[in-house]
Amino acid sequence: MSPQKWIRETNAIGIISKSSKYGGGTFARSDIAFEFASWISPEFKLI
Predict the structure, then answer these.
(1) Between 14 and which of 19, 20, 29, 45 could a Cys-Cys bridge form, CB atoms 3.0 to 4.6 Å apart?
(2) What count of other Cβ atoms lies within 10 Å of the Cβ of residue 12?
(3) CA 24 and chain centroid, separation
(4) Are 17 and 3 contacting, i.e. CB atoms less than 8 angstroms apart?
C-alpha cells in the first residue's frame, strides 16, 4: 500500500505525501517522526 493510499484510506492527519520528480517524499509532524524513530531504534528515545 502506498503512503498516499494509506493517508487517504485512514484519513491520517499530520502526514503528507508528495509525488514529484524533485522534492517528493513522505513527511510527518515531528512528534510522529520521533515516535517512529524510537520504534525503529529504542536508543533514539533515550537521547
Answers:
(1) 29
(2) 14
(3) 13
(4) yes
Cβ proximity of 25 and 18 under 8 Å: yes
CA-wise closest residue to 3 among 27, 38, 32, 35: 27
| Whether the predicted model's global pTM rises above the 0.85 cut | no
Helices (H) and strands (E) in the chain, counts: 3, 2
Each residue of 4-14: pLDDT tens digit?
998 999 998 99
| pLDDT single digits (tens) 18-46 | 888 888 888 899 888 888 888 888 887 76
C-alpha cell of residue 38: 524510537
Q: Strands 25-28 and 15-18, how do they pair?
A: antiparallel
